[in-house]
Write a structure and sequence with these properties.
The complex is a heterodimer of chains A (153) and B (184).
Chain A (H helix, E strand, L loop, with lengths): L1 H13 L3 E3 L3 E5 L2 E3 L4 E10 L4 E3 L12 E5 L4 E7 L4 E4 L6 E5 L2 E10 L6 E11 L1 E2 L8 E11 L1
Parallel strand pairs in A: 3-13
Antiparallel strand pairs in A: 1-2, 2-4, 4-10, 5-9, 5-12, 6-11, 7-10, 8-9, 11-13
Chain B lengths: L1 H22 L13 E3 L5 E3 L7 E7 L4 H17 L4 E8 L3 H9 L7 E4 L3 H5 L19 E4 L5 E4 L12 H13 L2
Parallel strand pairs in B: 3-4, 4-5
Antiparallel strand pairs in B: 1-2, 3-6, 6-7
The chains are: A mainly beta (153), B alpha/beta (184).
Chain lengths: 153, 184
């Protein structure tokens, strides 16, 4: 019984490659790649309406940037991450312009797969760390974990 | 025709006051402020009780909160402008290490104590019941400003202010001026 419950919870968490918390939803489509080739993981992020999260590059060392971590194991090498263009969020009454993301956007992770990889379906662990605010208050930083499916053909 | 016009004016007046009221809704007003005793960055303990008879301004902050950092210079100015009028100011930092807080807030040269709410208990005690139930309780007051009156009651709480960010603390100062003038 417990085993079924755990399986159900795991399925609920990963079904459709989508995970979410109160503020952020992450959706990753399955990637198909040939062994030894380059490809890209498309991480779709949706921030709840009325909120924004800090950009990947921030201009204040104390602001917590949005980051992505992907554990490619020995099979996949993450070469680079491509974050979207920032939006400006002005703190009213100040000259502070924050670099933020909001709404729906994509983060691209370019990777190489090892030449000797057998054909199979691989699962990588990913994590998005972000710090969200709305127009007058901020929430503690959070990390949202997700799975990436890569099919090697 | 006149009665229709009167009704319309009355309706508009009521609507306006409801809307304005909704924007100014503040939680916990008139309630006794939850007591606390917290250490500042030098290890000196401060409690609410020791400031009875003063107006206390509290700002709940973290080092990574852009709103808090944008308000910081204005909070410092407020302290300078009001400390001779029976006002004491505190920043309560929520769930962060002393070293980080010291380094980050050091750049603002605060002339008032920064208190460390290391486990978030005090912040959580200021989270109004039922407000933002999806958040952890210690998260709720972050970036908020409060005024506690001479009797230890909450008389201003910016938490549910639905208007825009008030970096210059103009509403808080307005309320402080009212309180000082009335002597409450």
């Amino acid at each position: 019984m417990t085993r079924w419950l755990i399986l159900f919870l795991l399925y609920s968490l990963t079904a459709g490659g989508q995970v979410r918390d109160e503020i952020v939803k992450v959706n990753v489509s399955k990637v198909i790649v040939k062994a030894g080739r380059q490809s890209v993981i498309n991480i779709s992020v949706e921030v709840k309406d009325g909120y924004h999260i800090q950009a990947n590059e921030v201009n204040d060392e104390y602001i917590i940037p949005t980051t992505i971590e992907i554990d490619g194991g020995s099979e996949f090498i993450i070469k680079s991450l491509n974050f979207p263009s920032v939006k400006k969020f002005k703190l009213e009454g100040t000259d502070v312009d924050l670099d933020v993301y909001d709404g729906l956007f994509e983060i691209l992770a370019f990777f190489n797969s090892q030449k000797t990889l057998p054909k199979d379906l691989y699962q990588l662990n990913g994590a998005l760390t972000y710090q969200a605010c709305d127009s007058i208050r901020c929430l503690f930083p959070k990390t949202i974990k997700f799975l990436i499916e890569i099919e090697v053909q | 025709m006149k009665s229709i016009l009167k009704s319309l004016i009355l309706f508009m007046a009521v609507s306006h006051s409801i809307t304005a009221g909704a924007q100014e809704v503040q939680p916990m007003l008139g309630q006794k402020a939850p007591s606390f005793a917290l250490n500042d960055l030098d290890g000196k303990m401060y409690s609410l009780e020791q400031f009875k008879g003063k107006y206390i301004v509290i700002h709940f902050a973290t080092t990574w909160c852009p709103f808090c950092n944008a308000e910081a210079p204005h909070l410092e100015q407020l302290n300078k402008d009001y400390r001779d009028k029976g006002v004491v100011v505190f920043v309560v930092d929520v769930k962060e290490g002393k070293e980080l807080v010291e380094k980050s807030f050091g750049r603002f040269n605060f002339s008032f104590p920064v208190l460390l709410d290391a486990d978030g208990t005090v912040s959580a005690s200021y989270a109004p019941e039922g407000v933002q139930p999806d958040l952890e309780r210690h998260e709720v007051p972050i970036a908020s400003n409060l005024i506690i009156d001479k009797e230890g009651r909450i008389s201003f709480y910016s938490l549910l202010n639905t208007t825009s960010f008030d970096a210059k603390l103009s509403k808080l100062k307005q309320k402080l001026d009212e309180l000082i003038e009335s002597g409450i």
